Amino acid sequence: MRLLHTSDWHLGRSFHRVGLLDAQRDFLTHLVATVEEQRIDAVLVAGDVYDRAVPPLAAVELFDDALHRLAALGVPTVMISGNHDSARRLGVASGLIRSAGVHLRTDPAGCGTPVVLHDEHGDVACYGLPYLEPTLTQTTLGAGQRSHEAVLTAAMDRVRADLAGRPADTRSVVLAHAFVTGGRPSDSERDITVGGVESVPAAVFDGVDYAALGHLHGCQTLTPRVRYSGSPLAYSFSESEHRKSMWMIDLDADGEVRAERLDCPVPRPLARLRGTLDDLLTAEAHTRYEDAWVEATLTDAVRPSEPMARLARRFPHVLSLAFDPEGAPDDPHTGYAARVRGRTAQQIAEDFVLHVRGGRAADAHERGLLGDALDAVRARSTETAGSGAAR
Question: Which domain of life is it from (predicted)?
Answer without folding.
Answer: Bacteria
